[in-house]
Amino acid sequence: MEHTNITLIKNIDLTNDDITMKLRIVRLWKLPDHINKKEVYSIEMILMDEEGTKITGTVSKMFLFKFSRLLNENIIIFVIKPNFGKVRSSYKYVDNTNKVVFVSSTQVERCNMFNGPQFGFSFTSLKAILEHKFLEDLSVDVIGEVQDLQPIKTFLNGEGIATKQATFKIQDLEGQVISVTLFAEYAEQLIEYLQKHPEEVRLVVILQFGRIKWFQEKPAVNTSYHVTKLFINDDIEEIISFKKSITTTDNCGSLSTTMSKGSFISIVTDDELFLKTEFINIEEVSEIKEEKHVVILATIIGFIEDKPWGYFGCTKCYKKVEPLILIDDKPKSPSEVEEPTIYRCTKCLIDVTIPIPRFRIEIRVQDHTGVVSLTLFDREARKLLKVSTKDLIGSQSKQVIQSNQEVSDFYAYPPLLTTLLQRKFAFKIEISKFVLDHSLSVYGINKISADDSIISQLNQKPDESDSQRLTYMFVASQDTPTMKDVVSVTDDNVTPASHAEKSTATSPLVRGKNSAVSSTSSDLKRNLSDAYGVDPPTANSTTKKDRSSVSSGQADQIKLLVPKVEK
Domain of 318: which CATH number? Predict the structure, then answer.
């Protein structure tokens, strides 16, 4: 049955319930139920009319029985008597604040004729993205030729599931270049294409409904969970036209000029990430003078007591947000200060109404050569603890005092965090340019593993520094070289901390009751008070005296405090 009175998306009248729309289902995905992941919670769609205007659509769980068999991606349908809801999310897949809601009175009929575009691409130029001239709360479509495709990586996501990641750059016809990252099924799609087309020289890709993310203060395009649509050398007008526009002399982006196809498809496992990265002892960390990643094997012995274990972050860039509070002249106690409803991101300078709690745990770890301070960030902490920060703080709301600092929630260490104490892990840490340039003093954890196989293999690696030390002691007949206090700070790409915090060496250490410190009388071993590397309150790690000049009495004055635990 043909319908003649068709309402276009731009002409939707919210006061009229009796309208008919002719729409193509450009994208369709199913959201899993929050409790039972095997059940479908809703069907979500991106719909397009014959003018190419798009709107999102949704079918709730209660109406799945009626519509699920009628809806498929790429088909054309008449939607009769739909309802319209408001899009609540600040981030939108299409530029429309309303969405089509399929309800009991809604009817769906198939249609075979559609005088509109097939895919409805709305390309954003790479130049506009690189110059920050785009809507940050809206998805983007980009097209370009693949360059610098890195080996495919495999990592564990927040649910402990092995997930693939592909990173590369794309170049457009204007010569603009931007980084692109594909996750999960999109990385799998790329792998499958490369395996089926081993002789392919050029790859032109379209990322539809991609999301702009920030990495090291530069914009990049990532896939968006189940929503993004990826086209790789598809026989469609947009890709064919793009290929024709590439001159034969400009082959800098061709795959043949970078590396062989086989190396693209190599999967980087956790074993390789740790075992193929330079392995060193803690005492060697502070001697590194160049940007690199290194692996250490160490035991968590405590937390930095005056540092919070989490923070409230921006919904866009993950940096810390600060509450916007109007302070009057009349002094108030913390309990009298009302909780603010608006927060300001310290990086983006945007206002956030519902900040996201995230982990940022400053820990002290020890091996047989010393102690170092590390920062465990949200992604690795969630994988390790199997819980989100939001779940951990429960229903408690954050409290704010006039100095704009969170209190209580993030300064009392929950019992779950103390389960990390006295456990040995492999840490892949980053020595970044920022750390080197600013002489900061806590290193960011890039990846952490408790895998027995990885730890066992690292344990078997030769300890070159110990051999050199013994040779120095016995051959030169000199005292054991004093060990430096190895403390550093990271400039992680999501850290919310102020760059002014340059040292945690003087911060008190919180540790478990089983981590007692003892001394040894052996002349060949360092006193463990040295190995802990915690300076007296008046010391500064950049100007402190040689450890050999610190008396045992002074070292004994360094107190290790019992962690505060939520009750």
Answer: 2.40.50.140
